């Protein structure tokens, strides 16, 4: 369930835009295969939203996961890469920074309400050169108002900068069912357990146990979203039982896996 190395990922080309044709601009993509864009940035706000499918967005310091009815908000100038899985329907919005204040100038995952979902779908059908003073322009401004009010949700995973600990984290993302202890990882990486624990806590704010659990649960969202059984996902994520996985899922997200995707529309 990692985005690193477990899928045959196609390269997705970033459009060569030098300026936005309108203050709110939409791109529609139907992605049959897993795809990724390489690290890049834009001088405008980007909202990455999948009306079906699950997105992973990575920056230098964090990973973000956007299951159904969630979107990743990327401020101007932030280097990022986007991973999409098979059969993803993308609706990307490019937004002029002046439409939003400083409170919106950080990477985050936001909740997409049913109204905002429908507004995005409808706006994506508008022509690129829509009349900003006409019906399409008014639709764009209603959409902007809804995005300004969108609630932030905790679907991110901080990443360390220390090369040894970052390697540890990347290895775990590639193999979430790897149950080696931190002491065993220390032996493999040539660092003491105490050193790894101290660096991970300092650079992510999370203990090894909490970081690994969050990584596993966020990674599990893609498989759950495409209909894999909870038991299958639990075992793939390194849990010894379905009940342990459900308990951890409820602790992080506040609901069971079934309720999570019922609420989010997946």
Structure notes:
The protein is of the alpha+beta class. The chain folds into two domains: 10-153, Regulatory protein AraC (Jelly Rolls, Sandwich); 160-264, Orthogonal Bundle (Arc Repressor Mutant, subunit A), CATH 1.10.10.60. It has nine helices and twelve strands. It has a six-stranded mixed beta sheet, with helices on one face. A hairpin with a 3-residue loop joins strand 5 (55-58) and strand 6. Helix 4 crosses helix 5 (193-204). The longest helix has 18 residues, at 208-225. The protein is globular. Residues 1-6 have low confidence and may be disordered.
Under the CATH scheme, which class of the largest domain? Mainly Beta
Count of discrete structural domains: 2
Largest sheet: 6 strands, mixed
- How many helices? 9
Low-confidence stretches: 1-6
SSE pattern:
EEEEEEEEEEHHEEHHHHHHH
Indicate the CATH architecture of the largest domain: Sandwich
Beginning-to-end CA distance, first to last residue: 17 Å
Rough outline? globular
Helical/strand content category: alpha+beta
Fill in the CATH topology of the largest domain.
Answer: Jelly Rolls
């Amino acid at each position: 369930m990692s985005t690193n190395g477990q899928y045959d990922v196609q390269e997705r080309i970033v459009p060569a835009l030098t300026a936005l044709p309108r203050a709110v601009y939409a791109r529609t993509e139907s992605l049959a295969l897993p795809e990724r864009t390489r690290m890049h940035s834009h001088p405008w706000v980007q909202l990455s939203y999948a009306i079906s499918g699950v997105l992973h967005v990575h920056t230098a310091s964090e990973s973000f996961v956007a299951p159904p009815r969630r979107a990743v908000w990327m401020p101007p100038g932030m280097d990022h890469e986007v991973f999409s899985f098979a059969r993803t329907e993308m609706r990307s919005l490019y937004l002029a920074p002046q439409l939003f204040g400083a409170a919106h100038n950080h990477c985050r995952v936001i909740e997409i309400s049913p109204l905002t979902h429908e507004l995005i779908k409808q706006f994506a059908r508008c022509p690129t050169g829509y009349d900003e003073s006409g019906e399409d322009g008014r639709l764009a401004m209603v959409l902007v108002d809804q995005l300004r009010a969108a609630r932030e949700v905790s679907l991110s995973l901080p990443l360390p900068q220390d090369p040894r600990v970052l390697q540890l984290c990347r290895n775990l993302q590639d193999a979430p069912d790897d149950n080696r202890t931190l002491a065993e990882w220390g032996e493999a990486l040539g660092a003491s357990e105490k050193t790894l624990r101290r660096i991970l806590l300092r650079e992510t704010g999370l203990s090894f146990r909490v970081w690994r659990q969050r990584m596993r649960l966020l990674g599990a969202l893609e498989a759950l979203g495409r209909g894999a059984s909870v038991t299958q996902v639990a075992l793939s994520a390194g849990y010894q039982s379905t009940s342990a996985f459900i308990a951890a899922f409820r602790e992080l997200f506040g609901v069971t896996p079934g309720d999570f995707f019922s609420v989010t529309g997946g």
